[in-house]
Amino acid sequence: MTHQTNRRDFLKQSSAAAFSMALFPSLTRKVAPSDRVRVAHIGINGMGTNHLNWFAKLPEVEVVGLCDVDETHLAKALSTLQTLQPNTSAKTYSDFRYLLDRNDIDAITCATPDHWHAQIAIMAFQAGKDVYGEKPLSYSVREGQKMLKALNRYDRIFQLGTQIHAGDNYHRVVEIIQSGAIGKVNTVRLWKTGFPPVLGPANYQTPPSTLNWDMWQGPAPASQYTPERCHFTYRYFLDYSGGVFQDFWCHIADVVWWAINPTGLKSISAKGGAPEGIGDAPKWIDIDYEFDGLSLHWTSTPPNVPGAEKKGIGAYFEGDKGTLLCDYNTREITINGVTMTDVPEVPITLERSPGHQQNFINSVKSRKQPESNLAYARQMTMPMHLGLISYRLGQPLEWNAHKEKFRHNSAANALLSREYRKEWDLI
């Protein structure tokens, strides 16, 4: 596929689902080879397996490459792809740099551990490839800044993998709040319950022969191999991620930034508990944020508001006319003491998503940024990083939103980025 030729209008059809105004492309038409998007997947276990399944089933997509530092993941993914696209000629790679060298790849998806997200995306932009990247956007604030600069410089497309963003429920929550039905929102409460697993004691050992442990660590500090630090449970180590909090922030903060776009962050104050075992990401964390005209609170237990106790994750909007409680698939609006699941008089104003992955493919073709684009995702993700910095330092912090740095705190500013291991500083 080229970005200047072979463009097609996407066939759309009216949806008979809720609200009856969503438009979806047909997924049954045949697509000419010249109009297909050639996609490669980097990091293909866990969520990466979902990436492979999602994109391989889209008529416009041909999967042409698979990459992982673990040979067992590669073998599994190739077998899956051969089932989904029986005539595949996709090549496999253990080093993503060789994949990015290919000129016949239009886009990549990235589902590596968090500490690799930024470098892979930036190098993909430099190589002329669009990116569908898993959340969180980056490991640090400075990485997000560099990603946006590179995206603009190389005129690329980026979609953050906030799949819930595509659902009708979030669209409808945004319409209701932006309509003013609950008035001006002055307070938002976000939460996610659940503790990390207790890891350890550390089982230090020689890495499996099928795993390139040095490259898995990449830009992160070097560590002796232990299974607890690798693959799924990496997220409970601050060298690579930020625990349950970092894992779920974007899932639920997304609807807040979409609905009311908080701006003018002034202060962050976090407290939390250390985990048992060898992990060091917080067992629990509570954070208070102050924005211009808005207080936002994150907690690891449901807040003391009606209906929250029933939800393991949620957002509660408090306006001067009413409240709105939501999670991924449900919502409750309370106005004048009456609770309802919808406000029928609020019109449908947002076009419904054709599907999160289809939205990305459409954007690759149209060259128009998708819903969960990088500029939006960076603003939504940044408070997550700042909350973890407050937790790590054990002190409240003041923020200069214009300069994107902390006020009068060199220790906090030092944590906005980190120095990569020399051999893995690729950008």
From TrEMBL:
One of its GO terms (molecular function) is nucleotide binding. SUPFAM superfamilies: Glyceraldehyde-3-phosphate dehydrogenase-like, C-terminal domain, NAD(P)-binding Rossmann-fold domains. InterPro entries: Gfo/Idh/MocA-like_OxRdtase_N, Gfo/Idh/MocA_oxidrdct_glycsds, Gfo/Idh/MocA_OxRdtase_bact_C, NAD(P)-bd_dom_sf, TAT_signal, TAT_signal_bac_arc. Pfam families: GFO_IDH_MocA, GFO_IDH_MocA_C2. Residues 37-161 form the Gfo/Idh/MocA-like oxidoreductase N-terminal domain. PROSITE patterns: TAT. NCBIfam families: TAT_signal_seq. This is Gfo/Idh/MocA family oxidoreductase. It comes from Spirosoma foliorum. The lineage of its organism: Bacteria, Pseudomonadati, Bacteroidota, Cytophagia, Cytophagales.
